[in-house]
Design goal:
about 300 residues; about 65% helix; mainly alpha
């Protein structure tokens, strides 16, 4: 069919085939089952001429229908043309009421050429990938995990059979949207049951552990610790304790003012530090602390 086209015609045909919608029609028209309906280029030229005509006259749906009826083409060609016009304007009708009414009239014209036998809802005529049926089936599944697994399976079957879906969004895209929605809901459900990082730190934190006591302990336990860069000390403490490193860094500049501002709290901190040094048997360090701070 296409082989008889001139280079210029092929070039024009290529401009149509950049669109997935058009390419699907091209695949259909070049299939043996549709041989003789339209030459692809002939169809696209006629189709988009009618698209422009319908948009210009969308306020006159009956006039549009009559004009299509008068086209100098066979009934089979008119049926095919109207079918794809109905599909094409499906998205536009959501925001344009005039297009919606025109589309209804074009569908009526198309349906004039459908035999009653073709209208029967038989297994042969039934769309194997009806998303409404998918949604109904999802309601019967108990868990979100089962729902996602089913959607992945049906979408894979759809892709493997290369079933051409001219609706927008396609069946596969609708499955992807539903998978994303269910996955997000599942994530939110799980997130609501998991404490945040701060809560985790607090739950696992020893009752005697505070930032001030950690700093005081390391200052005594590691001789070179006080002379290290504050940022690096804060990162080290954050690594061992889970405290926020920036909060720790800020405490270095005020840790010893606590002795003057809150002497009882400071004394309590040092007593706790000494208690844990005593566990390690570091008596010399404990004596030095008590000497420096005049502990009894």
């Amino acid at each position: 069919m296409v082989e008889n086209h001139t280079d210029r015609e092929l070039e024009e045909l290529d401009t149509y085939l950049n669109d997935e919608f058009n390419h699907g029609i091209y695949e259909e028209l070049t299939d043996e089952a549709y041989e003789g309906i339209f030459e692809p280029l002939e169809f696209f030229q006629l189709f988009y001429a009618q698209v422009d005509f319908i948009r210009e006259n969308k306020a006159k749906p009956l006039f549009v229908r009559r004009s299509l009826r008068k086209l100098d083409i066979t009934e089979d060609q008119l049926f095919y043309l109207c079918h794809w016009l109905v599909v094409f304007f499906q998205i536009d009708e959501e925001t344009d009421k005039q297009i919606k009414i025109c589309r209804l009239e074009i569908a009526k014209l198309r349906d004039e050429f459908i035999d009653d036998e073709d209208n029967l809802d038989t297994p042969e005529n039934k769309n194997p990938f009806d998303f409404d049926e998918v949604l109904n089936h999802l309601k019967t599944l108990k868990t979100k995990k089962e729902q996602v697994e089913y959607l992945i399976e049906i979408k894979t079957e759809y892709k493997q059979k290369q079933y051409w879906d001219y609706e927008r969004p396609t069946f596969g895209e609708k499955c992807d949207f539903e998978i994303s929605k269910i996955s997000e809901l599942l994530y939110l459900d799980l997130a609501s049951k998991v404490p945040d990082k701060k809560q985790i730190v607090e739950i696992g934190k020893h009752k005697d552990l505070t930032i001030d006591r950690v700093i005081l302990l390391f200052n005594r336990l590691i001789p070179a610790f006080p002379d290290c860069e504050a940022t690096k000390k804060a990162e080290f403490i954050s690594f061992l304790t889970g405290f926020d490193s920036e909060t720790v860094r800020q405490r270095f500049s005020t840790i010893y003012r606590k002795d003057a501002d809150k002497p009882q709290a400071f004394k309590k901190d040092m007593e706790i530090v000494c208690k844990y040094l005593e566990i390690l048997g570091l008596d010399e360090i404990i004596r030095q602390i008590k000497k420096d701070l005049d502990f009894m």
